[in-house]
Give the backbone structure.
Amino acid sequence: MTANQFPLRTRRWLTLLLAGGLVGHFHASSAAESVWARPDAAGRLTYQTMPTGDRLLDFSYAGYEGGGVKIPDVPVKLTVAPGAGDDSAAIQNAINQVSQLALVDGFRGTVQLAPGNFHCSQTLEIKTGGVVLRGSGPGEGGTTITMTGNPHLCFSIKGDGAAKPIGKPAAITDAYVAAGTSSFHVSHPEDFAAGDSVLLNRPATPAWVKFMGMDTLVRNGKPEHWLSGEMHAERTIKSIAGNLVTLTVPLADSFDARYLNPPGGTMVKCDLSARPRHIGVENLRLVSPPQALTINQALNRALRMDGVSDSWVRDLAVENTMNSFYFGDQTSRLTVDRVNIRHDAASLGAAKPEDFWAGGTQTFITRCSATGNNVFYFSTGARMMGPVVVLNCTFYGTGHIQPHMRWGTGLLLDNCKVPQSGIDLMDRGIMGSGHGWTIGWSVAWNCTAKTFTIQQPPGSMNWAIGCQGRLESGTQPGSPNKKLPNGIIDSPETPVAPASLYLAQLRERLGPQALANIGY
């Protein structure tokens, strides 16, 4: 985005901002702070808004049950010991039996894998809510699943969880709804009530695609298609007062009526009753043979989760899987905690696999790590609408944290470390299949990396606040003469308070017990 793509009042404000009044070190005191989110005299966070009202998102709603809720230890119903041959059928049969049990407080029970080495040549599937698969530990003396046979996916967690629209949409009547806000006006509020699940639909119109500069992507003489159709944000209505709707979770993207058709976008009630909840995979080691392969070859993959809510993956040690963890666009309120990946062989080719891929909303990835080369340690999917949080994760090797394609919003990278490589919030241009602008309204907070590429999309913003590493600027891939502006770089090389934005927001919203509930 160039400064001229903002309204005049915003351009004047940005001129003052970049002249030194707000970017960099804000105070002469020893504790650096950011005007974008800083504690006031009473210790509560205050936020700088842009002239259009946009601000940093409250990311604290990411995670199991909407953040700050302890993951339960679900009682064991069946135990499986390793056998002499392939253990896939024995484990799957136990999962199927527990899946038939009645729900008690949202849970059916846990399938416990005894200590030892299980050999699995088939995908293990959980399709029913309230079922947990638990090993006896990811370390020595615990449970190991060794992937054998043809390359395959080890765990498939999949429900019939598509958000099904109900009734007719209501038009959003505001000329502009700012990113990070929770309230807006609609045309006929009488069709909605507090507690309703809704989809906020934001059309990817030709006018908006042109505004984003994504209508001119050409590769090898052929036009590339960036984005069309609609982007959907799942939310719940908190209250309605007249025509004013307030959501429980703020919006991760802005809605600008000038570029949307219908103007302002729409809100429609949706049915999520078919989406399973309370599914977990935990406490084991997963081993694949090393894979020096391209992403187009058959691969051993760790886990794919889609069509579920309020679920988790925790305490896993994973070796040599590729495209390891995929969380699809029909997921919400997931926690991924203490998952550690190691690659003994680098992938081949320019197209890189992803260790962690987030495509849904309210995903929380914390205390995870990966070690390996030629990978994306963390990526986002097309149309992802946050909040999505990656907290206290460390990645070693030549890979990158890099949102992947076609416009996601509302990502927080909080205290992440990529000491040998980079963190990129950027326009990928013609890369891939025309991935273009990957992310907006996103933040790197107190992160450390060898390099940072933090670019500013049209009509949006990305921030690097309190980050340590070399800032790189660049041009749009495929358009070497199209120089892209940087986003807001605040307090470079000096971390800011609060030390963690996510934890500070969570504590403020739910109190200190919420931090203890998630192990902080």
In short: The helical segments are 8-21, 88-99, 206-211, 501-510, 512-517. DSSP finds five helices and 41 strands in the chain. The chain has two domains: 61-161+275-517, 164-271.
